[in-house]
Records
---
Amino acid sequence: MAIKKGDFFAKKRDWSKLKDQILDHYLAPYLAKITTTGRPTRIVDCFAGKGRFDDGQDGSPLIIAKQVASMLARAPSSDVKAVFIEQKYAAQLEVNLVGAPGCKVISGDYEQCISRFLSEHVKRDRNYLFYVDPYGIKSLDFGHFARLKKVGFQSLEMLINLNSTGFLREGCRLLSLTRAVPDWADDLDYETDGKNTPARMDEIAGGNYWRTILAAFQSDTINFHEAEEEFIAAYTKRLGNHLKYVINIPIKERSCHMPKYRLVFATAHHDGFFLMTEIMNKAWHTLLTREAGGQLFLFNDEQWAHTQGPSIEDKIWEEAATSTELAALLIRLIDKNGIAYSPSEYVAAIRKYEGKRFHVRRKPETTPTGLKARHLDYNLAHIVVKRMPYAQEFLDRAGSALELGLNENVF
């Protein structure tokens, strides 16, 4: 196998910081909520590494370990543990985790270790979060993810780091395509494996759809960027057949480049889906503010222009043609717009335009103290949203304008 990379653990790079930041920000609220189920909770870092980079910065194992320790300090009776799978650096990882409560290192190969979680003897009354962050693609057998769902754990969530561009580059090589991959893609980490085959790529992708996508690239029907977009859309759709809610964030080093990776999150519960979308959206906004400094970029100019099209309230209006439960409306909006907006931004827009562009019905209509309910918390009430007809919206806006003494011709 030939791999294009330097010493991965020499220095923690910006894209690695982003991945770990998203993991870190998700773990605290995840643990706080999941432990209320009263079931044992396990966080599994499938490709743990050393635990700490040579420059002293924490890797995913230490981030996970600190969150587990914090949870156990707040609730000592909680059955929360972290499991770290690592073969090459297991001894160093053990040293870096000395004193960390609830942590266990499994020294071994991922493919062999994951079989333990798929065995008939595994305990199913547990909550599992799998963090799957390998180098390259060869270990990302889609079948493992599908079979983990079938085990029937109390709950299952996965955060997968997928080298989507590397997958397509390897696919071009294996299919002997003659169309050249863009030069700027050469800067991306990738792996080639002499033992790899198109059939093995089918197992990684969860189907052979990637061949059709690359055939379109070869025929110049789509460019390489569009091929990557189509690939991740198809991949997440297949993952959604097993875990209902899927969201991803593209991670780039330069705005003109392909994503280095796609960090893909999958869960069976919409609360986790909303929380991760919120976290990914905030990470996106944070990075945009660092654009001038030549740091990471998440979207190219075309994608950024798309987010500057219809307003957020217009997007909500389009999806609320019929009475729709708030949670279901948020799911539809995220499925359509990805991480361009956060759930809290959608809720704020609905609140701002309630009675102007949106009808909102709550049951119960009052709070426990008897006041009229005005919140938009679907956990406290059954909340239904429906857009107002254009005519009604026009009249309401016109009435508001007249009350303010504005000229009727403004409309």
---
Amino acid sequence: MTGVKIAGVGHYAPERIVDNHDLEQWLDTSDEWITTRTGMKRRHWTSENEATSDLALAAARNALANARLNADDIDAFIVCTVYPDYLFPATACIVAAKLGARDKAAFDIEIACSGFIYGLTVASSLIRAGVYNRIVLIGAETLSKLVNRDDRGTAILFGDGAGAVVLESNERDSFLASELGSDGSRPELLRVETGGSRCPTTHATLDRKADRIHMEGREVFKFAVTKMIAATDRALAKAALTKADVDVLIPHQANKRIIDAAMKYLEIPPERCVVNIQEYGNTSAASIPIALSEAVRDGKIKTDDVIVFVGFGGGLSWGAVVWKWVA
């Protein structure tokens, strides 16, 4: 079994910016209310003509350029998203084709905000097992198209964007451990009800906006804090490390209060936790790779740093990956 490392990073966000004052125009809310409860100031939303594959494509191109590689150098493409271009084909197939890699493996992972954690585990495993040499892993979402813009509880939260990494085989192994989990006993806590085989789309479901994101915020908040901490503990234990060994924390950007709770438990000072929620809001599967890309760009990650990626999302699902940064 070989090792794996991240050879390149990249991200992309749509040009349109919706700040808290914009939301005040049609919602019973305020900049102070949103900032205090979520830490969000702005989020990027797509235009009508932009789809998830467009964002994923831009992020992948940036990651390939950062790695100084071409699409032909890649063996497989994985896109993590809850809102693909179509029910099928997979968005990864479209992205690979637009990159000019039409004969390569490509597939999607749909596990909501936990997508990048699951994807990093799957892609790293494929490389470490010798199945592939290089994989482009992308988290991409256009959740502004799924929010009920009349629902203050969710309309303020979600943004659009994409982040990508190029993973490749390496003598030194960056992948130290992973902890994944799910509990599907209460899917109604965070879901889009209609559009699948359980509840096909009809005029009636559209009228009651069942095709939009629904979230039981208080329940999800409690779940998120508990599971993020537990997943981090278990992943560190698998890596034979402790909280004191963590150099950088890159959490899913869902709520600043959730991030603060994770930092407090891990005893991570703010300067060692990557937070960009104020700019992007919650971009689901894209949030961690966007944060990673910005952290690398800004010089916040050094060789041999131990990084914890941790997130949670619909499913309900959660996970953490312990990663050592290898140049």
